[in-house]
Specification:
- The chain folds into three domains: about 130 residues, no CATH class; about 250 residues, no CATH class; about 35 residues.
- It is about 40% helix and about 20% strand.
- It has 13 helices and 13 strands.
- Strand 9 and strand 10 form a beta hairpin.
């Protein structure tokens, strides 16, 4: 009886592990390319450039960076600013108005589309390569890899001949190409020296008024002391305006690509048609976010270079979190890493590799969903499983350099969640913050 029970237990465990492995395999990220608006006229401009260039795409997104499309140089831009070339620019004492933000956003959309960035993103998705027009071809290897499709499901020549194949291509378009984004970060900054200078100017005026009223010099001495204190806080704060753009991939765009441009064998006419097409593939502006944290970092805690890198990284991460909450298609999906049990086997929580970097706090709420792919059509759906929230005191601080700062939660390996409603949660099921419109009950 004992042996029989043991075998049964092992078989059940193997079934669960297999199911979990399959669910892990089904994890699909959104794809992201990140671009910097570079201000060479600024003192810290080159260091912001270096900091940005050294930071990888957040690991909750697939890297879809386009070679040669990482930087928009402000000095090369015209047509936006009223009195000088370049963008409407956030500076100390001047916050961008809603109208200026909209003009920057739409002008950037034109710049990206004039540079053919959308077409280059499509070319990357479909493995476009070749030395000449005569030998260039496309392939679906990246789509198969990121979408976990088998070769037959996503073979375009075969897919175009069957209803199931067309559904598979449509699913890949909706799940992968449609969820391809460009994030343009316009980063300017405020130093504490600038704030101190303004403070000293204000204090000097106040001191002069006091001296005029009292006939003494105490006001001026007070101003000098206060100015010296202000000078000791030499923090560096960035003003980050992030503009989000999405690849405009839909059924009509896909029809043009598959019928007139895609070829997995040399076909100079189709390749040339793809290269000449400047209207089908576009990026569209979808959202904006602004982040400015006035908390200064004391000089000496970092080197100047590391200070700039840390603050730029955290500022951009905050904007990504806000954009994901604001724009449905940009939501991050994260797999449940493991089910946490005590020594008696009782479930005490669920681990996931996300934390403060993704904006999680003890008030965050997440849906747990299961991705289901119809075996007959290949169509993907998401089924609601449960609702969870972070466990108090167990939110992972995975922000850039949090370990260096010895921040609370920085040494945790993950965030622990507890279930507040719903059914059984297994590793590999997906966490999505808030409510996700594609989820079915």
């Amino acid at each position: 009886m004992f042996v029989k029970q043991t075998i049964l237990t092992l078989l059940c465990a193997c079934a669960v592990i297999a199911a979990q492995a399959q669910e892990q395999l089904s994890y699909r990220r959104n794809s992201l390319a990140s671009v910097l608006v570079y201000h060479p006229e600024d003192e810290f401009g080159p260091e912001i450039y270096k900091a940005f260039d050294s930071l990888p795409i957040p690991d909750k997104y697939d890297d879809h960076t386009i070679t040669g499309a990482r930087v928009i140089d402000n000095k090369d831009i015209s047509g936006v600013q009223r009195n000088q070339n370049g963008y409407y620019k956030a500076t100390y004492g001047h916050a961008l108005t809603a109208a200026e933000i909209q003009k920057n956003a739409l002008h950037t959309e034109r710049l990206l589309n004039d540079a053919g960035i959308a077409k280059k993103m499509v070319a990357k998705w479909f493995g476009f390569s070749g030395e000449t027009v005569e030998d260039a071809t496309f392939n679906t290897e990246l789509i198969q890899s990121r979408g976990q499709y088998n070769a037959n499901d996503i073979d375009i020549a075969l897919a175009l001949q069957t209803t199931r194949g067309l559904v598979a291509l449509s699913d890949a378009g909706e799940e992968l190409l449609h969820n391809t984004f460009v994030l343009v970060n316009d980063i300017t900054y405020v130093t504490a020296e600038q704030e101190a200078a303004a403070a000293k100017l204000a204090l000097g005026v106040i001191g002069g008024i006091l001296d005029g009223l009292t006939g003494g010099s105490g006001g001026r001495e007070m101003a000098k002391t206060a100015g010296a204190i202000a000078d000791s806080f030499t923090g560096f704060n960035v003003k980050t305006h992030s503009y989000l753009y999405q690849l405009d991939w839909n059924d009509s765009v896909a029809a043009v690509f598959y019928q007139f441009h895609y070829t997995d064998k040399p076909d100079p006419a189709k390749v040339q048609a793809f290269l000449n097409d400047n209207s089908t593939y576009r990026l569209k502006y979808v959202a904006h976010e602004y982040e400015f944290d006035k908390k200064s970092v004391l000089k000496g805690q970092y080197t100047r270079t590391e200070l700039v890198r840390t603050i730029c990284a955290r500022s951009m991460d905050k904007n990504i979190v806000a954009l994901a909450k604001q724009y449905e298609d940009f939501k991050v999906k994260t797999p449940v890493y493991s089910v946490l049990t005590n020594e008696r086997g009782k479930i005490e929580g669920y681990a996931a590799k996300i934390g403060m970097k993704e904006g999680i706090n003890e008030n965050s709420k997440f849906q747990v969903v299961q991705r289901i792919q119809d075996p007959n059509t290949g169509k993907t759906t998401y089924k609601y499983i449960a609702t969870v929230k972070p466990k108090k005191g167990l939110v992972w601080d995975n922000r850039y350099n949090a370990v260096l700062e010895k921040a609370d939660g920085a040494t945790l390996p993950y965030t622990t969640f507890v279930k507040t409603a719903g059914g059984e949660i297994l590793p590999g099921m997906l966490l999505i913050e808030g409510k996700y419109r594609k989820v079915t009950e």
